[in-house]
Amino acid sequence: MTKSKTVSAWAALLPLALVLAVRSAGAEPAPTPAADTVRLTILHVNDVYQFQPTAQNRGGLSRMATLRNQALKESPHVLTLMAGDTLSPSVESSAEVDGEALKGRQMIDAWNALGLDYAVVGNHEFDFGDDVLRARLQQSRFPWLGANVMSVKSGQVFDGLKAWDVRDVGGVKVGIFGVVLPETQTSSKPGPDTRITPYCEAAKRSVDAVRAAGAQFVVALTHLAVEQDRELAKCVRVDVIIGGHDHDRVEETVAGTPIFKLDEDAVDLGRLTLELDAKTGAVKKRAWKVVPITAKVPDDAAFNARMEEYTPLLTTLAQRIGRSPVALDARSAQNRLGETNLGSFLTDAFREATGADVALINGGAIRADRVLPAGKMTRRELYSLMPYRNELVVLEVPGTTLRAALENGVSLSSVDGKPPGRFPQVSGMRFTYDLRKAAGERVTRVEVRGRPLDDAAVYRLATLSFVASGNDGYTMLKGLPTLPASKDLPSPWDALTGAFSSGRPAPRAKPQGRIALVGAPPGGLKAPPAMK
């Protein structure tokens, strides 16, 4: 790209405007440290699924690049960290370029363009399997960490990952290691040779190794639930934990170790400023602040230039595919707690597209995590609803197995627990479950097309390939006969595109009473603000 050499009045004022924009976002430069002190600035984000700003015009890695460049002007000792989850699930990762699904390639290009220093693998880094993850690791121009991600065959860390690293920062040796939550083994798709081992044991090995390599200051870069971060702080001595996964801001100290975490999609930037003793690496002073990434922060031109190849994709995602006459409740927690108008619409569309008797999907497949307003629906919004690449299948399901599937769907529901991704959204049937009963005995009533479920009958069930393969606890469906017509079925996206464009079936404004709950406390089940 050729740059103009003409100096206009605007160009002359641009540096000042940039500084003022960054300062308005809260990134005031700190005073110069003493001669015996090294200032280390750690910039961090986590759970970043798109490089563009969000629908609310927050975030955007181009804006983050601007803030990073400003930090580098203030001090040469800057580490930029990403605490896991970026390859999936996202709209862009679901899209195809030249007939090939991106599967996170665009995010690695974005992090390369930004100048990321380190990332830890999150649970969603394994969503496309080991081979895709290896390809993304090779594409990255920064190290990925994962001390507890092991190969069974070799006994070594997963190929392409590092357990730990040490970097010289102004004469102070900074050690860093990364760990991911063990639930990744079953919640995502690591291969048969990949094992996610206990994080405390891996952390102890890594800290011993970085200390032996001369590290004076140790950073744990984690993708754990906050309770696990607290456990980590108790089981191993580190200087700071920078975490992800929860999608919630955290600032606390456990066993003398500070823990910092942010929400998702880089809507904010964490900025940790540390003044370290130049000889020992001991912390003299520590300050953490959250810098909002808003439209007040200008884009970085160099970043945008390096991401130009994705402009046609962004144009395609903006295409109109139809409309919805009502707002659609795509909040993740709501779709894991009970019936929603979106869950009913999706299953209605899948049942009609396949000619099945009933339909069932797992609530965790619905990912947009917001209420989509009535009106135009774009391809981006379609992908945001269900970003995972699934197939529609029709299974021949005995009534007893259908009942067992519903039991599985509500088996993890509780008054105060995390809403389970296996919770079922359904079409062509109604059921009641009692939260006071033991798991496996909760479903008290099931009707199919207005008639009681016949345990001896065989029903045609439309579902997603993820569920049909036995995931999310739906093992009773694995291996069941698939109707021959499944070979010619539309994809879930095509089925929904047809529904949005034709208006058939039409989404309803409110849930239809397909799922009834008994034994809930007054006010119903609680929903957390965000889901992973």
UniProtKB/TrEMBL annotation:
Gene3D superfamilies: 3.60.21.10, 5'-Nucleotidase, C-terminal domain (3.90.780.10). The keyword Protease does not apply. Residues 1-27 form the signal peptide. Residues 516-532 have a biased composition (Low complexity). Residues 321-478 form the 5'-Nucleotidase C-terminal domain. GO terms for molecular function: hydrolase activity; nucleotide binding. Keywords: Hydrolase, Nucleotide-binding, Signal. SUPFAM superfamilies: 5'-nucleotidase (syn. UDP-sugar hydrolase), C-terminal domain, Metallo-dependent phosphatases. It comes from the Bacteria. Residues 41-248 form the Calcineurin-like phosphoesterase domain. GO terms for biological process: nucleotide catabolic process. Residues 502-532 are annotated as: Disordered. Belongs to the 5'-nucleotidase family. PANTHER family: 5'-NUCLEOTIDASE, 5'-NUCLEOTIDASE-RELATED. This is Bifunctional metallophosphatase/5'-nucleotidase. It comes from Corallococcus sicarius. The lineage of its organism: Bacteria, Pseudomonadati, Myxococcota, Myxococcia, Myxococcales.
